[in-house]
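Hi team,

Below is the intake form for RimJ/RimL family protein N-acetyltransferase from Paraburkholderia unamae. Please confirm the fields before the structure is written into the shared record.

FORM ID: S-0412
PROTEIN: RimJ/RimL family protein N-acetyltransferase
ORGANISM: Paraburkholderia unamae
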Amino acid sequence: MTGHTNATFPSAPDSLPTLTGRVIELRPLCAQDAANLVAAASDGELWNLKVTVVPGPETVEAWIAAALAGAQAGTVIPFTIRLRESGRVVGSTRFWKVDRVNRKLEIGSTWLAASAQRTVANTEAKFLMLRYAFETLDCVRVQFTTDVLNAKSRAAILRLGAKEEGVVRRERIMPDGRKRDSVRFSIIEDEWPEVKSALLHRLQSAG
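The structure came back. Fields below:
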């Protein structure tokens, strides 16, 4: 793509985008989403997961505050995942590690209520985010990082068309104190047209 000097990464929370698909909508995260996020996470008691961090009743306010602080700093673009038909919040995701100078970012902190898993929601969310990253922000690289123990997530990222780059040892410390090894994946700008075509085919096949 051309024109990268004009690419604009939103920084202030009131300038964050809404990304709309056929089934789901990604809306900017706000403090008022706390109850809806806890309700979504309650579907499967996701805060008990050891391989990712999902907000629960005791942690949701701090979780949102940290995300919004990142948005204010311009390093995070956080979303709630909502079903368009009902408006129900079924999870959350975000861009983070936003690097304007090098035109790259990471998609992460993605989680879905148990009832929304194994549906089109995750594929459509990733498609909307990748399209925005490459076609609006003009990124040259989008990366993903997941727990080395999270086989389901690793397989899902590979299905998107991302390339595995290797293991980052002791990449972060989890809430329970575990020193997590992570697996990193990426999609670069040259690969986006092929990845986009495959994701559109998957979405169309899902009806």
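SUMMARY LINE: The chain has a mean pLDDT of 91.

Thanks, M.
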